[in-house]
Design a protein that fits this description.
Blueprint (H helix, E strand, L loop, with lengths): L11 E7 L2 E4 L6 E4 L3 H13 L1 E6 L10 E3 L2 E5 L4 H20 L10 H21 L5 E5 L6 H8 L4 E5 L7 H4 L5 H8 L4 E4 L2 H14 L3 E2 L3 E4 L2 E7 L6 H7 L3 H14 L4 E8 L6 H13 L8 E8 L6 H21 L7 E4 L5 H10 L2 E4 L8 H9 L6 E5 L12 E3 L4 H13 L2 H17 L2 H12 L2
Parallel strand pairs: 1-4, 1-7, 4-6, 7-8, 8-9, 9-12, 13-14, 13-16, 14-15, 16-17, 17-18
Antiparallel strand pairs: 2-3, 5-6, 10-11, 11-12
This protein binds adenosine-5'-diphosphate-glucose.
Adenosine-5'-diphosphate-glucose binds next to strand 13, strand 14 and helix 13.
């Protein structure tokens, strides 16, 4: 880790749905390994340096695992029963809050029986944090699963500083109003000293809802509530830029990228998509836009190939299974209609790739398509840019991803406009190289400067008294 200017150190307690480690192996060979992902990468060195703890669920129901240390970090598992995993995680978190907060892309379900488990699990996290925290510690609560924790923790431990960061969008007031528990959620969040969002619009939406549903007064960036001042603002999350850049320069990754290009056809432009299989990510419309481009004969399978890498997620939720079927249908149709021997139109991989392999694909891709209907940030867009050390490559980015706020030099698209997206793909394939280089260079400068360490540091600074 390079030396960085850090905020004054106090111990830090992270409270998140999941621990930053997962079990690997079975029986006697079972061990904990660090999970991948930006949040874990950013917070691990800070926790190792400052001391503190990470509280979260292990991922297994009714898991009796007690506290343990891993890689210099104190882990405090918070248990959940199988019934709680169902109601708290699969139901209210992923069938109510997730769709509601993403512009109600799927109709959110409101079931009064799911609220009780949400409160119970939040209370358990708050009590665990209250047990672990020492006076003056900074407790950083993450994401939509745990929105009640800040107020519950303040009740138990008024002597700690509390920050909350929402990784997904906070919806406009008209949508948030649908939530039967809207007031409880706002009061829960107002327990924090700082409530952070990916974009300024998120902070604005939250402040308006707070003023509407509670006696809070103030502005979009500062609220007065219950005799306290709460700061709200945008803290766009990012990636470990340097790490992605360096990975992309490893000889074995460069060789893997060359082999991908050879296998797909060296003369073809590669259009890459990397997503969690989620209905917010706009995978279906993007495939339709590619299909339209072929139909319009704006490009052929000799000119280009689409590669869709999709990691399965939330499979027990019915909407996810339906979406997967729909995507697989479109892939089948496009390939049936347009593929030629040795020239598959769409390569579809439904699995997780090791990091180096993912980076090899980023490196091989001429065009990266990131077109969610709505996304808190979208780290894939930033990861792609970080790997393009020679300023080559084109990013096509949805206006509705948080990342679009910073990445204005991408080719911005409206993911619901299939014609517009198809035209943007065509433009990306034929773009003037000098224009592309200039765009990529500006994008890289922005993300290099605002990496994930800068994100963590600016949030931690905001929470200082
Ligand atoms: P996610 O919705 O999970 O996160 P995103 O920001 O795109 O979305 O991150 C996905 C991560 O998974 C990336 O780091 C990517 O490399 C990785 N990934 C995706 N497909 C993969 C595959 N097939 N194999 C291996 N890795 C794969 C939520 C919000 C986002 C927000 C993040 C962080 O929904 O908007 O950016 O949190 O705050």
């Amino acid at each position: 880790m390079p030396a960085r200017k850090r905020a004054a150190p106090s111990r830090m307690i992270i409270v998140a749905n999941r621990l930053p480690v997962r079990r690997q192996g079975t029986g006697d060979n079972q061990r904990w390994v660090r999970s991948s992902g930006g949040l874990v990468t950013a917070l691990t060195p800070i926790l190792q340096e400052r001391g503190g703890a990470w509280l979260g669920w292990t991922g297994t129901g009714d898991d009796p695992t007690g506290p343990f240390d891993h890689d210099g970090i104190h882990m405090r598992p918070v248990p959940m029963s199988a019934a709680e995993i169902e109601a708290f995680y699969h139901e209210i978190s992923n069938r109510t809050l997730w769709p509601l907060y993403h512009d109600a892309i799927r109709t959110p379900e409101f079931d009064r029986r799911w609220w009780g488990p949400y409160v119970t699990v939040n209370q358990r996290f708050a009590e665990a944090a209250a047990e672990v925290a020492k006076k003056g510690d900074f407790v950083w609560v993450h994401d939509y699963h745990l929105q009640l924790v800040p107020a519950m923790l303040r009740e138990l431990r008024p002597d700690v500083r509390i920050g909350f960061f929402l990784h997904i969008p906070f919806p406009p007031e008209e949508l948030f109003a649908w939530l039967p528990w809207r007031e409880q959620i706002i009061r829960g969040l107002l327990g924090a000293d700082v409530v952070g969002f990916q974009t300024y619009a998120g902070a604005q939406n939250f402040s308006r809802a707070a003023r509407k549903y509670t006696p809070a007064t103030g502005t979009d960036t500062q609220l007065e509530y219950d005799g306290r001042t709460i700061r709200t603002g945008s803290y766009p999350i990012s990636i470990d830029f340097k790490d992605f850049e360096e990975t992309a320069q490893k000889p074995e990754v460069v060789a893997a990228a060359e082999s991908i290009r050879r296998n797909l056809g060296a003369s073809r432009k590669i259009l890459l998509c990397v997503d969690r299989l989620d209905y917010t990510k706009g995978i279906d419309q993007r495939l339709s836009a590619f299909e339209l481009m072929l139909e319009r004969k704006a490009a052929t399978v000799e000119d280009c190939v689409m590669v869709q890498i999709a990691v399965p997620s939330r499979e027990p939720v019915p909407e996810y299974a339906a979406m997967r079927r729909r995507i697989e249908q479109i892939v089948g149709r496009v390939n049936g209609d347009y593929s030629e021997p040795g020239r598959i139109a769409v390569h579809y991989f439904r699995r997780s790739f090791p990091r180096d392999q993912l980076v090899a694909y980023y490196l091989a891709a001429d065009v990266m398509l990131v077109t969610p209907y709505r996304d808190g940030m979208n780290l894939v867009a930033k990861e792609y840019v970080a790997t393009r050390a020679d300023n080559s490559g084109v990013l096509v980015l949805s206006e509705f991803a948080g990342a679009a706020q910073e990445m204005r030099r991408a080719l911005l698209v409206n993911p619901r406009d299939v014609d517009g997206m198809s035209a943007a793909m065509e433009r990306a394939i034929h773009i003037d190289p000098a224009d592309a280089k200039q765009r990529m260079s500006i994008l890289r400068t922005t993300i290099r400067r605002h990496d994930v360490f800068d994100w963590a540091d600016s949030f931690i600074r905001a929470v200082q008294p």
